[in-house]
Amino acid sequence: MNKIALVVGASGITGSNLAEKLIANGWTTYGLARNPQKAIDSLIPVAANLLDIESLQISLTNINPTHVFITSWMRNETEAENIRVNSLMVRNLLNALSPKKSVKHVALVTGLKHYLGPFEAYAQAGTLPETPVREEHPRLNIENFYYAQEDEVYAAAERNDFTWSIHRPHTVIGKAVGNMMNLGTTLAVYATICKETGRAFHFPGSGAQWNGLSDVTDARLLAEHLIWASTTEAARNQAFNVANGDVFRWSWLWKQLANWFGIEPVGFDGTIHPLEPEIAGDGPVWAEIAAKYSLKEPDLNRMASAWHTDLDLGRPIEVMSDMSKSRKLGFTVYQDTRDSFFDLFEKLRAEKLIP
Known about the structure:
The chain is of the alpha/beta class. It is built from 15 helices and 13 strands.
């Protein structure tokens, strides 16, 4: 079968890594975004607004994908608005593709907020799950835009008779600029600022995160998982956790990251020191660093997403994902987490995004 992929959100961490992997595997690959990715060789850009059904239909006129990968979402002020906007994006996309009858599989990327709750009630008392989180955990009795997105996929699959997969990564580590959830690059920027200014590289999170077990998801591994689930009979019509396969404690990893940058780490001292206010006034500092080292991106806000890093590292419990379901069905790809960060830092340095 001729495999034609439509990657929605191709300019983000997940979408760009997925597009590169699909192209390397011989897929015809379209990358849909408001500002399409043009840096990936052989990726066919599609400029479209998922909230405008008419313009979306026009943009997709001559595109007949067999596989659709939805890796994009839009942040809003409230969870009610998140639900309205993000479900509409999925619904518009699948409605626009419906008359073509070309789609065989739709993969939706969500995340661990499926288990932890949305940003407004993130990991608060009463919504804390048992860990490691497992796919069979029931939905929380709380509004969550991930549930609304899933329901749109389920409804369209029943209508158009395609298969589906839901992918729930933990924090995704990979390179992207202008991404709103980018812990790896955010920590690289923070470490760079600390090194240049002589400030302490202070762990910004909670004691539970500092001392507890955690895991993350390399964007390259997530790409492999998306392709595997969309082409494997046994993986059809199922939801999956996706993580690297190892676990770590931030009390260990923080020292590893500091050593890479040649700075001294400062661990959890009994108080959470959020990163967002720590670097809120560092826009001019980053601009000076960018000028000093001829970096490509002088805008701190396009490099760092401290709000999301604070949410991840400020959790009141340790959080990790059970991967047994994928393992039993044959997905055995593994990624060392320390290398996920180090590979990212090397790539950011090579592409002149950090010194």
